[in-house]
Sequence to fold (480 residues):
Amino acid sequence: MWAFIALVVTTTIADADLWGHLRFGLDVLASKSLHTSDPYSFTADRPWINHEWLSELLMAGAYATLGSLGLGLLKVATIGIVFTTLAATAREEHARPLARDLFIALAVFVSYSRTQVVRPQLFSVAVFCTILYLLRQADRGRPKALWFVPLCFVAWANLHGGWIVGVAVLGVWIAGDWLEQPTLNRAVMLASVGLLSIAATLINPYGLGLWQFVMETVRPARPDITDWKPLLQLPPAVLAIEAILPVVALAAWWKSRALYRPVARDLAVLALLTIATFRVGRVDAFLQVAIAFVLARPILALFNSLDFNLRPSLTRESTAVAVLAACLALYVGAAAVRNLRVIRVEGYWIPDRTAAMLLRDARPGAKILTWFDWGEYAVWQLSPAGIRVSMDGRRETVYSDRVTQDHQRFYAGNLDMVDYPDRIGADHVWLPSNFPMIEPLTRNGWAKVLDTGKSVVLARNGTPIEHRPVAEGDKIFPWP
Fold:
């Protein structure tokens, strides 16, 4: 089991936004300041509130120090926070080793949907686990643990926008706790923790501007992004994994229902996260870890009761088993180290690396209308040459709804958008070869200056870009 978990958590696939996060973080690392205006896009029409700057700075520091290995270690260390808080919870419930291991491994596995790639939401899951553990400590007679919750929100507000979920959960928990213990002293302490946590989110480079940004941009209406789809629209395989821990938790509760009854406050937290997850699939990891912490006692009791009926002969020390275990450990250790050293680039959205490198060398300073999925890679590859893009994965962070919707209509081939490149002042258009807008553009006076077979670059004026061979190599981040 642990061999499987080790191989899973050390395997990393590049997310489409990783190039952008790293570029932004490296720029902050170099300049020691945040950009006050967006230098990467020529259609950006919103002030850039970089609400993930601290995550990007951590990524940049890890990458600048150890390259892709640094990013892999950063990811594993962050998952380690999830592991540690779950292990501490299992220890407090006096779990047997097998029960403890099953509990931790299951929670880590089912929440891996949001920790499998190096992106800011990885840190959200770790901070949320820390807060859940602190709330659990307060519930176990250590009320001083609550005073550390605001410190978590100081970090969270600068790491990722998921802190808004944390504020909602904390609010529900505080309200429910006060209803259960409606004393004046308890009310004062809970109100103080809640207000300090809200105030903590204002400790960021933008102050109240961060709240305004969140209120304007956080919404479930992003059907074109898989993470933001409702839970039931996710692939069946994902839904099957999502169901494992809830089913185990329900079975555990049913078995121990005579001895254990969850408090209404905790059930309200789970209800909030369940509703949020069904509306926006990316909240799933928050729900999964909340189930693990809230229902840790019955889950661990169920695992403690497991009896595999091992024959006495199988429980004695065995040299053969020891040798096999040692061989497995050596193999997994070597494979994990190898996994940590590389981030593979896979998926239907993979950018056309050849076209990007040729554009970088041939068109410095150009303004290029880009496909959304390739935007952050284009920022990484083209911005050092002064080339600016029209659209990247930051979406509402720097683009108004109008700009985003205009791009989507252009990508879809709407004929009333054929003049869109001229409207925004683009020098070039860079699109996948199968996009329907390419033919209307050529009829409208745009000429193909580069065709790699995977993507096409068009321009109003300009000489063709020489299509010289570019060594592909393995698809490993940063490529190159």
Summary: The longest strand covers residues 428-432. Strands lie at 367-370, 388-389, 428-432, 447-451, 455-459.
